[in-house]
Amino acid sequence: MFFLIEWLLRDNHYLSILGICAILGVAYLFSAHRKLIKIKLIAIALFLQAVLGLFILKTGVGQNIFAAVSRGVEAIYKFADQGCSFVFGSLANPSGPWGFVFAIKVLPIIIFFGALMSLLFHLGVVQLLVKGVAYAIRPLLGTSGAETLSVAANSMLGQTEAPLLIKNYLGRMTDSEMTTVMVSGMAHLSGSILAVYGLMGVPIMHMLSASIMAIPGAILIAKMLTPETKTPETMGGEMVEIPRDTKNVLDAISSGTSDGLRLAVNIAAMLVAFISLMALVDALLSGLSGGWLTLNVIFAKLFYGVAYLIGIPASDCQAAGTLLGQKLVINEFVAYGNMVKTALTPRTVSILTYALAGFSNFSCIGIQIGGIGAICPSKRETLTKLGMRALLGGTLTNLLNAAIASLFI
């Protein structure tokens, strides 16, 4: 009994438990059909999240496995550096007088990882891993084959790439399945982006852990927000075929490189636009308020309580609230970039890594409507209707991950 009390008080674990309850309460409050929420599914998914967090963060086996994977990801950077050095020469050396140039040192990593992921997909490696996860999760949670496959794929692929695996089923998906697909897309980071954040100094092990924990977490939140009211086509364990469009290895590398290039250019453009607009809004707010009001001040006030409830120490809650606001309004790229430059405790950095590990921001509503809508035009109206719900779901999933992880950090 005394041990339990001591544990609850240590690092304010009792607040993290309250935070978990609050997050589930928000999902319940915004549920489309509260009476249809399946308590068994929610309980099993929450249990899976906690078990995965415990295994990864507190057991020697879990720590060794994810530490090894983290070292593997870090080793891949060296191969990407070979291409960067060949194209950009000494400009790719951050120890030079020009220092660390983001466009040269970071963006090419996305191109390399785009080609690598496409190659692994062509060779069937990605499908094997995704199917393995889907087959393990689906019977436990009672979800349909198509939505489970898409959620599992999001642990490696992006929010518009993962739905391609189930493009033959998208047109006949229920609203509940579509919510799951969209929430999962916003609650995860793609492999190529994860690699870039690792290079920036974000803890890779925690990002990998967040990707795995978000699989049951995204399903949990999605099924609370939009419980199933119909019988999905692939509910009975039907084999979901994964299409492969590339003809050979060279075609896969070429296609992945092109996709990576488009993503890198899009990220660069988004960063220029959003950071510039944020500076403009800050200048306007500061000028109108006499210098005391900025976007960061607003974010800090709005998200202070959220940061406190997911286990972040009170001394770091203002800074953490600012980063949570930046992630939601701008994107996680800006938030992570500012996180590694802010003087925060190691515990805060670890918890924030989970809270920021997703694409859940306002611009991604448009990305999903455009990306998934292009694959399945008949679902564009549904995507538009569910956009804000998916954003809420992705945000709650990330915060739930952080609150659970804070119990073991």
Can you describe what's shown?
The chain has 409 residues and is mainly alpha-helical. The chain has one domain. The protein is 72% helix and 0% strand. It has 18 helices and no strands. Helix 4 crosses helix 6, helix 9 crosses helix 18 and helix 13 packs across helix 14. The longest helix has 41 residues. It is globular, with a radius of gyration of 21 Å. The mean pLDDT is 89.
Rg, alpha carbons: 21 Å
Query: What fraction, in percent, of the residue positions are helical?
Result: over 70%
- End-to-end C-alpha gap: 21 Å
Number of helices: 18
- Low-confidence stretches are none
Order of helices and strands: HHHHHHHHHHHHHHHHHH
Q: Tell me the number of strands.
A: 0
So what's the overall shape?
Answer: globular
